[in-house]
Each structure stands twice: as C-alpha cells, then as structure tokens.
Design brief:
Keywords: Hydrolase. InterPro entries: Cellulose_Degrad_GH3 (IPR051915), Fn3-like (IPR026891), GH (IPR017853), Glyco_hydro_3_C (IPR002772), Glyco_hydro_3_C_sf (IPR036881), Glyco_hydro_3_N (IPR001764), Glyco_hydro_3_N_sf (IPR036962), Ig-like_fold (IPR013783). Residues 708-777 form the Fibronectin type III-like domain. It comes from Saccharibacillus endophyticus. The protein is of the alpha/beta class and 795 residues long. 29% of the residues lie in helices and 18% in strands. A 6-stranded parallel beta sheet has the order 4-5-6-7-8-11. Strand 27 and strand 28 (779-788) form a beta hairpin. Helix 6 packs antiparallel against helix 15 (378-384), helix 16 (388-401) packs across helix 22 and helix 18 packs across helix 22 (611-619).
C-alpha cells in the first residue's frame, strides 16, 4: 500500500531548490523548530495586541518556520477569555504575524501555524464537538467526516493550517487517561474513522490549499495506547505481529487516505523510543507505505530521551538521533533550537540531513498554498466559527454517540405529558410530575467537554440540566416552587465531602423521577502543581487536587466512580423512585452496584457543548439511541483486559470471576427491536485472492424508527499462528422504520481474511473461516467460508 505522491510543478521544485541553496544553516534550523505561538504576542490592558520582541527577533535572525498553538487557550497557555482573542481578532493576529515574518525574513517563507483540533479548534469561540471516544460510539464515519470538515473550516478561517489529530491509538487498558482521545479498542473501527478524519480535514480531493482544508497529523506513532498498566508514556511490550495487525493498521490506512503528517509517540517499544525508531519512521512509514509528508515529535519528546528514557547523552545527541531516524520537526523547538546546529558542527549530522527535513517542510507549505495565499479573511472567521450550523452538527454527533446500556421495564423514553400535565402545556400551574436532575455532572459545563478544550463564555454549553429544562419548556436558571425540574449537585466528582447530600435528597424526595448524572471530569484548572509546564499535561502529585480524574497525564488504578458518588447514588436509591443514571466521562466506569440497581443507564462520554440537549433528546424520545460501545466495560478492573479480540490462548478464568465484559464491544440498546434472519453467502468457497458476498436480513420488529449497527466478525478456525477468537472486519449503520426490512451485504475478501504470518508478512491461508453478522461482538448469525490456496495468497 503506497500513497501516490502529489505532483508539484517544476517551478515549485526549482523554488525549493533555490531556497535550500540560499538559506543559512541557522535559517534551516528555524524551519524545523516549532516554538509556542501563544508566547509570541501580548494583549495589553486597552485590548490591543502586540507582537513580542522575541518573536520579532526570531523572525529577523533565523526565521520562524512554524508555531504551535498560537490561538490555543487553556490553563497551560494562561490564555483566558479576558486575555484571549475573538475569532476575528485571532485571524487578524495570525495575519500580522505572517506579514511580519514575510517582511523581515530574508527569503519570504510563510509560517506554518499548527493548532490542536481533537474535537474542535482549541481556540476561543470555536465549536466544541464530542470527544473522539464519543465519535467512535456513533459508528458513523460519514457523520464524522462532516464534523471534521466543519473543524477544518473553522481552523483554516483563522489561519491555522495544520492540526495534531486524528488520534489513532488503539486502547488496550482504559485506565489510561487519554482513552477519551481515542475511538476505542478496535483497529478496524479506528482505521475507518481515521480515514474519515483525514478526508474530512484535508478534503476528499486532497487539495490542501483549499480554504477549508488543513493538514492532518496522525498520532501517536506508535502503540501509545498499549502502555504498561495504562500509564501515560510507559513502556510497550509487544511483538512485531501484534504491532502490525493492531496498532499500525489504522496508521497504514490513514496514510493510504492521504495523510501528510505524523507525530511520534512518547513511549518505547521493546526498548526503542518511537522518536528515534528508524525502523518505524523510515523502513515502515516511508519505504513500505510510501508516506511523503513530514514527521513531528510530540512536545518534550526529545527531552525524554535524555531524562527518562536515557538513550541519549545530551540534547545534541538526542537531536541528531531523531533527525537520523526520520524526524523533521520538533514541537516546542527546545532541543532543535539549542542543539541542532551543534549536532552538525560536531559531525553527528550532515547539512544534507538537515536539508532533507527542510525540503519536506517547504514542500508542505507549498502544498498548503501558504506561499501564494498566506493571509486569511478575518470577517469570514467571525462568520463560520461557532456557527449555528456547526452547533446543530455537534448536537447530532452527540445524539448518535450516546449508548443506552440498560432500560429496565422500558422506563425510557420519558413521556413529556407525565411532566407537563394532561394538557401537555407549558403552564406551570397545570404541571404534572416533577423530575430531579441530581449529581456532580448535572450542571457542570466544563465536565462534559473533555480535555483539549478552550475557555467557554457563560451560556455557551448546554448541560444536562439545561437540556431537561428546555425539553420541558422551563427557562434556564428557573428553580422555584412551581418548577417541574429540580436540581442539586449532591457532591463533587472527587473528594469526600457529603455536605451536599441533604439538599440532593430533599430535591429527589420531591420528584417522581430522578436523573442521576455521575461520572468524571477532564476539566483543567489554574491550580499550581496540576499542569506540566513543558507538555501541558496534568500532573498527579501528593498535594495536587481538583476534580480532574481523566485526560492526558491522569491515569487511574481503578475504573470505579471517584469520590463519594457511589455513596450519593446509594442514598438516592433508598428513596425507592425510578432512577436513570447518565454517565458523563472519558473512560469506562465499572460500578456493578449501579448496573444492578439503576432502572436505566446512559453512557454519554464527553458529549461536547450541545451534549445536554442531545441527552435530553434521548431521554424524552426525540432521538432513538443508536450509539454502540467501542470498548468493552469490565465488571471489575481486575478483569482487564476485556477487549474483544483476545487470542484463543487467553488462559483460564479467575477464581473470583470470569473474564467477560459487563458490556461487550459493539453493545448498545435501542427503543425498538431489531431481528436478524437469513444469513447467506453468494459462494461458500473461494480462492485466497477471491471474494464473496455475505448477506443478512435485518428487520425493525418494534414500533419506533431506529438505527442499527450491523457488525461483521471473522474467525480463522485454524491458522499457522495463534489468532484472536474473532475480529471486527466491517460494519454498516442503517436506519429502519417500524416493520421495515433491509438486506445488508458485505463483500468479503483479502482484507477480511489476511493476517501477519510466521514470516511477518501479510497472507491469506487456506482453511475454514467463520463469519458472524450481528448487533455486537457476542451476538449474531454465522456462516462458514472455505478458502482454497492461491498463487496470490501472500504479499
């Protein structure tokens, strides 16, 4: 699989050659270091913005090749709503910086502005979409591609030309704090969504110069989601077969889709840091896959080589090792700025090694159209960023991502008429029953946004309380004796304080139905000691404390609810009223007591700025839940791992419990019922290089229109190496009206049957395969396929 390289005109190639010839070594290094962009400007007390002297000096002396996070706003950058910039002002700033660099640099080379866009541009005013684990739960790559187009449009309108997404890490241990940034546990699903992200961000045409396209950066290369104990940046213990079949597969597909930038992972694999792994960055990425873009480090990764991994003696050594391995640009620029020149002068690198990386960066700038159109239209930025159209899209994505885990006695959906009175009126004097929205995440805006989120103005985020009130016609903030919707937080996410229990129980006693909103938080704050000042990741120390229990740098040893949330739930349940639990969180929650006692459970993950409305849409039946789990939820953390593609030799059960997930991969309930019938194959025997069609009938046997995710799993019943019991190989998300039947078809061929054989090459072996089509990884109808040998069986 080799990506077709873009064809550049002879004129562009000539210009690049001339630039490389005319640039000094110092100027070349300037193209490879990426300082922090938010340090390059200051906002004065009168509201004006000035470029810093250090930026001006750098532009004049060595050039500014790229800047990271110029428009980023969060506790790490220190940029707040008060000190940050509006969409229009942000675009004006980027234009000013670009103009200064072009005027004062010797060669007229534009700046490449790189921004964080994991689930929306991390800038003030940008639309905050659901996090990637939510996106994965939609099982809707077309919808995700549309979301990525919106993110690209908002980012490029302000001058951002590159983003550090999508995250293609495959999650093995959900205790890992960055689980929320990933799509889930499965390599195929991650591959499909990664391709959608690349096409959405860069445009299907691949024209990076378009004013609604940005450069996608695949991260973290590689196996970052498979770290020891689920701890961030910990070692990865993995053989080459598993590395290729699971962790590299999404990257291979994304490169094939046209991705032009890759970020190295912090971790080591079998003792080799990814940042200096030439086999990964050259032999596989470039030589085998045909990648033709540039490689950037993660922030602080080169420092880790000298202090942590200790595979380099000093900064000069680490910089040389990285470049020789295939790294082209350093995020933060700290090591390249200080040591790359010395690496050349000391003979650790040649100038030709530097030129190779500079050429790749310059090529990307030409492909992005930055040399011809370096400026943006600030008015356009103000029009498209945070638009109503994008808010509606955020609500749709959130709605499709919510997973219904339990619905005892069909308690959901709730009937509005029960709460509005017999006349279904918005007149409070004629209201019917009351509903209590209780819990630390019931009305906590930042807690439902996830990590990598900018500051939000009041009213920008719809919480669950907001959504329920709006669904019942109550105004925001209403809390009177006549209110249909009652609210109390009860407790915090973390901490042992129970002082909120009495108020929560008092509100719950007055209600007929209780919505209990529990979970986690990835909301950062400004507290000292909670932020790594080099990488921006949160840091857990003995003395640091806030409600953040998920996100980068926040790994846990358990999957239970933090603090006294379970105790609050148990007190609420003692009231004997219907309780619907809504989880808002960034990793799975394992609470057997709630599984047993809750009347209904919704997994909403971090649903973004429109999450409260989307959750209300599900609660009141305006939308039928269609989200499906993209990672298994264990009964207990001691069961880990519970991912669905465990090898057949997974061992025996534990003394205390089995190793089956509480809720398996692919699981999710609906307000209707789907029936599967009549699975068949066009041909039940094929050659290894042939294909067949599997068909299955799916009928909506219920009374509501709904969406079903039809999943195809493949089991190789006998192979030359130990294989997983089953692996997801395809899926379709379909919509069915009551009584409607559709025939879903899958074309089964090499990509469904191949694996990495004894010689570490992809192959299709002859033999018997079991194909299972159904609603989850543990249900479905089966058909058997025999594969005969073929001359084209190996590649």
């Amino acid at each position: 699989m080799k990506h077709k390289q873009p064809s550049r005109s002879a004129v562009v190639e000539e210009r690049i050659g001339k630039l490389l010839k005319d640039m000094s070594l110092e100027e070349k290094v300037g193209q490879l270091a990426q300082p922090f962009g938010w340090t390059c400007y200051e906002r004065k007390a009168d509201g004006s913005v000035e470029l810093t002297e250090s930026f001006k000096r750098r532009a004049a002396e060595g050039g500014v090749g790229s800047l990271y996070g110029t428009l980023r706003a969060d506790p790490w950058t220190g940029v707040t709503l008060e000190t940050g910039l509006s969409p229009e002002d942000g675009a004006k700033l980027v234009n000013e910086m670009q103009a200064h660099a072009l005027e004062h640099g010797r060669h007229g080379i534009p700046i490449l502005f790189g921004e964080e866009c994991s689930h929306g541009h991390m800038a003030i005013g940008a639309t905050v979409f659901p996090v990637p684990i939510s996106v994965g739960s939609t099982w809707n790559p077309e919808l995700y591609e549309e979301m990525c187009r919106a993110v690209a449009l908002e980012t490029r309108s302000q001058g951002g030309a590159a983003t550090y997404s999508p995250v293609l890490d495959v999650v093995r241990d959900p205790r890992w704090g960055r689980t929320e940034e990933c799509y889930g546990e499965d390599p195929h699903l991650t591959s499909v969504l990664g391709r959608a992200a690349v096409q959405g961000l860069q445009g299907k045409s691949g024209d990076l110069s378009a004013d609604d396209a940005i450069l996608a950066t695949l991260k973290h290369f590689a196996a970052y989601g498979s770290s020891e104990g689920g701890r961030n940046s910990a070692p990865v213990h993995m053989g080459p077969r598993e590395l290729h079949e699971i962790d590299l597969l999404p990257f291979r597909h994304a490169v094939d889709a046209g991705a032009r930038s890759v970020m190295t992972a912090y971790n080591e694999i079998d003792g080799i840091p990814c940042t200096t792994n030439r086999h990964l960055l050259q032999d596989i990425l470039r030589d085998e896959w045909g990648f033709d873009g540039f490689v950037i480090t993660d922030c602080g990764a080169l420092g880790l080589l000298t202090s942590g991994q200790n595979t380099a003696e000093d900064g000069t050594d680490s910089s040389a090792q990285a470049v020789l391995a295939g790294v082209d640009m350093e995020m933060s620029g700290e090591m390249f700025d200080r040591h790359l020149l010395a690496a050349v002068h000391e003979g650790l690198l040649s100038e030709a090694d530097v030129d190779r990386s500079v050429r790749r960066v310059l090529e990307m700038k030409f492909d992005l159209g930055l040399f011809d159109r370096p400026f943006v239209d600030p008015k356009r930025a103000s029009e498209v960023i945070g638009s109503e159209e994008h808010r509606k899209l955020a609500r749709k994505v959130a709605s499709e991502s919510i997973v219904l885990l339990k619905n005892e006695g069909d308690i959901l959906p709730l009937q509005r008429s029960d709460f509005l009175g017999a006349g279904v009126t918005h007149d409070a004097s004629r209201a019917g029953k009351k509903i209590a929205v209780i819990g630390p995440n019931a009305d906590a805006p930042y807690n439902q946004l996830g990590d990598y989120t900018s500051p939000q103005p009041a009213g920008a985020i719809a919480t669950v309380l907001d959504g329920v009130r709006a669904a019942l016609g109550e105004q925001p903030g209403s809390d009177t004796a006549d209110s249909r919707v009652l609210y109390a937080p009860g407790c915090r996410i973390r901490g042992e304080s129970r002082e909120g229990f009495p108020a929560a129980l008092h509100k719950a006693e007055q209600a007929d139905t209780i919505i209990l909103v529990l979970g986690g938080s990835s909301a950062r704050d400004f507290g000292e000691g909670t932020i790594d000042l080099q990488t921006g990741a949160s840091v857990v120390t003995e003395n640091s404390w806030n409600d953040m229990e998920c996100g980068e740098g926040i790994d846990r040893s358990t999957l239970n609810l933090a603090g006294v949330q379970l105790e609050l739930a148990q007190e609420i349940f003692k009231l004997g009223k219907p309780v619907i639990v809504v989880y808002i969180n960034g990793r799975p929650i394992s609470e057997p007591w709630i599984v047993e006692n809750a009347h209904a459970i919704l997994e909403a993950w971090y649903p973004g700025q429109e999450g409260g409305h989307a959750i209300a849409d599900i609660l009141f039946g305006d939308a039928n839940p269609s989200g499906r789990l993209t990672l298994g939820i264990p009964k207990h953390v001691g069961q880990l791992p519970v991912y669905h593609y465990k090898r057949r030799t997974r061992g025996k059960r534990y003394l205390e419990d089995d190793f089956e997930a509480q809720y398996p991969f692919g699981f999710g309930l609906s307000y209707t019922e789907f029936r599967y019938d009549n699975i068949r194959l066009d041909a039940d025997t094929i050659h290894a290089d042939g294909q067949t069609t599997l068909s299955i009938d799916v009928t909506n046997a219920g009374s509501r229109t709904g969406q079903e995710v039809v999943q195809l799993y493949v089991s190789d019943l006998a192979a030359s190496v130990v294989r997983p019991e089953k692996m997801l190989k395809d899926f379709r998300k379909i919509s069915l009206s009551p009584g409607e039947k559709k025939t879903v078809t899958f074309t089964v061929g090499r990509e469904h049957l191949e694996f990495v054989g004894p010689d570490l090459k992809w192959c299709v072996e002859p033999g018997l395969f079991r194909l299972t089509a159904g609603p989850s990884s543990i249900e479905g109808l089966t058909a058997e396929l025999r594969v005969n040998a073929s001359a084209l069986a190996a590649r």
